[in-house]
């Protein structure tokens, strides 16, 4: 817990809000919108409250509120007006910004209201592809810049997972595509399953028979599915695990398991592309992203 970030640099604010640090400084100096603290060496740093205020200001500014007008609002008015806009419009960019606000404030109501507003204009598939995927990509960038607390990511990830599960449950009906049993799993030690869960939704939507195994599956567990007569298409997604030095060895182990069978593997993720030039003895298909896979399915 000591590694959790509770203060933010101006570069963090730039990464999260999309507003250049130079502009943030102008807003501070000219309009007193933010009041940074300073270290003993006079370096700016900001509280989580300042970050949330900036996100609200950006949302208002993107909807033609002038900065000078926003600066005259009370803190409560800024929050109220920003939430109202998020509920009212929920277009892609506004929705992503609202989801950021929801994540940093642990605000489930804002998340659900924004999502429900999107449902008036888009299908769940459109929401996932046009809003959730860009939002999750931004979360990935925030991880790289070390501006995101684990608690924030866990909170928002669980809310998105709930929506995937809900929409998958709505699709319950007899499978019509019986060419393969689709078995979805993550490598041992891998816990990032939003993409895999969405792939399961898309397969069920297409009438496929799926078996969702989820996080952290040891490879020797795959042998269990060789006992039936139906061909199996294993699907996995690689985000963190296996580590880069172990990726080739991981695929060689899968190749050996699948060799001389009619089963195949589909692997999704940048790590999978690292072995795209390797000649395998079994059928192993590699895609950089889940969208690439779905476009080719």
Shape: elongated
CATH class (first level) name of the largest domain: Mainly Alpha
Rg (CA only): 23 Å
Beta content: 15-25%
Structural class: alpha/beta
Strand order of the largest sheet: 5-4-6-7-8
Low-confidence stretches: none
Number of helices: 13
User: What gap, in angstroms, lies between the N and C termini?
Assistant: 42 Å
- The strand count comes to 8
For the record, the CATH architecture of the largest domain stands as Orthogonal Bundle
Q: If you consult CATH, what is the topology of the largest domain?
A: Multidrug-efflux Transporter Regulator, Chain: A, Domain 2
- State the major sheet: 5 strands, parallel
Mean pLDDT: 86
Q: What are the secondary-structure elements, in order, as H or E?
A: EHHEEHHHHHHHEHEEHEHEH
Estimate percent helicity: 40-55%
Please tell me the total number of domains.
2
Task: Write out key terms for the chains shown.
297 residues, alpha/beta, Multidrug-efflux Transporter Regulator, Chain: A, Domain 2, Rossmann fold, 2 domains, 8 strands, 15% strand, elongated
Would you give an account of this structure?
With 297 residues, the chain is α/β, with parallel strands linked by helices. The chain has two domains: 7-167, Multidrug-efflux Transporter Regulator, Chain: A, Domain 2 (Orthogonal Bundle); 172-296, Cobalamin-binding domain (Rossmann fold), CATH 3.40.50.280. Helix content is 52%, strand content 15%. The protein has 13 helices and eight strands. It has helices at 10-17, 21-31, 48-62, 67-71, 75-88, 92-105, 108-119, 124-144, 150-169, 194-205, 247-258, 270-273, 290-296, and strands spanning 7-8, 37-38, 44-47, 177-187, 208-217, 232-237, 264-268, 283-287. The strands form two sheets. A five-stranded parallel β-sheet has the order 5-4-6-7-8, sandwiched between helices. Helix 11 (247-258) links the parallel strand 6 (232-237) and strand 7. The mean pLDDT is 86.
